[in-house]
Design a protein that fits this description.
By secondary structure, this protein is of the alpha/beta class. Helices cover about 35% and strands about 20% of the residues. It has helices spanning about 10-20, 25-35, 50-55, 120, 130-140, 165-175, 190-200, 215-220, 230-245, 265-275, 300-315; strands at about 60-70, 75-80, 90-95, 100-105, 105-110, 125, 150-155, 185-190, 205-210, 250-255, 280-290, 320. Strands 1-2-3-4-7-8-9-10-11-12 form a ten-stranded mixed beta sheet, with helices on one face. Strands 5-6 form a two-stranded antiparallel sheet. The radius of gyration is 21 Å and the shape is elongated. The model is unreliable at about 340-354 (pLDDT under 50). The chain binds S-adenosyl-L-homocysteine and iron/sulfur cluster.
Length: about 350
Amino acid sequence: MTSRYAASRAEVAALLDGWGEPAYRVTQVWDSLYRQLQPIEDASTLARPLRAQIADALPPSLELVTRATARDAMTTKWLWACTRDDAQIETVLMRYPTRATVCVSSQAGCAMGCTFCATGQAGFERHLDAGEIVEQVARAAHESPQRVRNVVFMGMGEPLANYDPVWSAIERLHHDVGISARRITVSTVGVVPGILRLARERLPVTLAVSLHAAIDEDRRVLVPLDDRYPIAAVLDAAAEFAGARGRRVTFEYACIEGVNDSPDQAEALGRLLGPFPGPGGAHVNLIPLNPTAGFGGAASATPRLRAFADRLRAHGITATVRRNRGTDIAAACGQLRSRDAIPREGPPSARMGP
Ligand code: SAH
Ligand code: SF4
């Protein structure tokens, strides 16, 4: 059976037609699923029995295992079991006063094996299909009082190692949900052929590249894929993307004390990315390392992070230090991991909105 967010509009039309429903119902169903992004059970334009019939015929692909809300009440993480095989994945919602961002998983697990990442430590299970990706956005949006304006592929998995389903999900989010492609960020550890494909797509998504070091010798210790796609090849592909899309590329850099955060390393990164082409050049997002069970390193101290950012700025690079959200529920970058027990929901007062 096709799952709710995997079904095409034609499949929904055929289903409704088979029940003798008028053609305009298709638009009502489609709008409630995507444009209004509401649970089908709440679609007030449809009679209750029809809602139940649709819910039955197009079942969800994700079943809730646990939900945890951070102390700030603005970050929520869901652990889902995929209904088709029980693979477990996680989704994070980050709310801001007037908008929200959903961080989605593109795979159950990840085969890339980055040493400092909890998903990488746990290994690969399988690719997600487009419906499972879109459903993560929908289910998170159902519980967000703020409109979801941004989607980031920064959950579990390497999106460019699962290209076609990820791209179908992006098209659905852009065309049907109405989230502008520019507000959809694909984060990659440096899968060069995937970056080049993205550069040729019609929709101008935003690209983030996880760099973590300025020289291959340092990078390959953290990112095994560096052996296959070294920094120079990744930067060439990213430059092609920047040229084709006319978009600034973001580089992510997890700052690990004594590993990749020295003044010399900042200088090397500045020299590497200073000449990066495209409007606005390179943008660097410094992420203080989040703790994971399988990696002993610690986050760089704040003064060190500031000094690192200042050195990059001296090279004309815009650099920001990312504020980590949701570390108390292991929802921050690199902490997502299936099969982990995650804390149960906090007291009602700590819970988010309606
Ligand atoms: N596979 C993709 C997207 C998912 S990871 C990628 O690697 O880009 C999302 C981001 O979290 C990446 O920038 C990744 O490097 C970062 N990350 C992973 N583990 C982390 C950790 N322990 N602390 C901080 N950032 C981490
Ligand atoms: Fe995979 Fe990204 Fe984690 Fe590396 S950092 S193991 S690519 S999810």
